[in-house]
From TrEMBL:
The keyword Isomerase applies. Keywords: Isomerase, Pyruvate. The keyword Cell division does not apply. This is Maleylpyruvate isomerase family mycothiol-dependent enzyme. Residues 42-176 form the Mycothiol-dependent maleylpyruvate isomerase metal-binding domain. One of its GO terms (molecular function) is isomerase activity. It comes from the Bacteria.
Length: 264
């Protein structure tokens, strides 16, 4: 079977994000979208640089997601990467391979690795990143059509699964509270993450009506009808939507910024 590669000035793997090149390979009639790998690699490099700058004492410090320490967050990023590799194995083989054996097993893995020295944490993040990229680049054409189930119950194909790695890296990088903030997340990545969160909220019963407006990027989302409009900088919207901020820097048409709807 022959393949051909081309570059398209169009939307990348981040849905609803414009003006980025994407790398696409067509094998037969199957589109293999590798466009997210570039931003993921850059995000990994930034995350590793921050972790490398920490001391072993600082790794035990607090984060934006207490009671987790920085060591917990870094270990979670590595174990979450392994979990995505398991889902890609499911797509590759057709044999159901759960993202995690159980939520208890997930918590135990994170706890077991949280107190390691910086060198071990960095090596873990780098090794799992390499395995993830290899799993993507060697995914056979038919696997790109396969649906797998994330731990939240949502079904995704590899095309929409792969960028969740970017979400993990960027949000958890800010969680480290080590100098990288939500305003440092590249605008395209932040927009894709917001799009992805909103998509999840749309599927969830009981999500309150809400309109989101990013005044700096023009991003707008409407959930239901009749809800308040929450607006501000895109980075501040992402911090709020992801549960990391009470709404600092945002305004609401009803006065006080409401609590963000439950996401994950």
């Amino acid at each position: 079977m022959t393949s051909r590669k081309f570059r398209t000035y169009d939307r990348p793997s981040f849905r609803n994000t414009t003006h980025r090149f994407r790398d696409t390979e067509i094998v037969g009639d199957v589109v293999q979208d590798l466009g997210a790998l570039g931003p993921i690699t850059a995000s990994t490099d930034r995350f590793v640089a921050t972790v490398t700058s920490l001391t072993d004492t600082q790794v035990a410090g607090g984060t934006l997601v207490p009671p987790w320490s920085r060591g917990h967050v870094i270990t979670h990023v590595a174990r979450a990467t392994d979990s995505l590799c398991r889902l890609l194995t499911w797509a590759r083989t057709g044999t159901e391979t759960p993202q995690y054996a159980s939520m208890d097993a997930r918590a135990a893995e994170i706890e077991a690795g949280a107190r390691r020295p910086v060198a071990a944490l960095v090596a873990d993040v780098r090794d799992t990143a390499a395995r993830f990229e290899e799993a993507i680049r060697t995914l056979p054409p038919a696997a790109w059509r396969a649906e797998v189930r994330m731990r939240t119950g949502e079904l995704r194909t590899p095309t929409t699964l792969v960028p969740t790695r970017l979400r993990e890296l960027e949000i958890h990088h800010a969680d480290l509270d080590a100098g990288y903030r939500f305003c440092d997340i590249p605008a395209d990545a932040a927009r894709w993450i917001i799009d992805d969160i909103v998509e999840a909220l749309t599927r969830r019963r009981g999500t309150p009506p809400l309109r989101l407006e990013a005044h700096d990027t023009g991003l707008v989302h409407t959930l239901g009808t009749g809800g308040p409009t929450v607006g501000g900088l895109q980075a501040d919207l992402l911090a709020w939507l992801s549960g990391r901020s009470p709404g600092t820097g945002l305004t609401a048409s009803t006065g006080e910024v409401p609590a963000a709807p439950f996401w994950i």
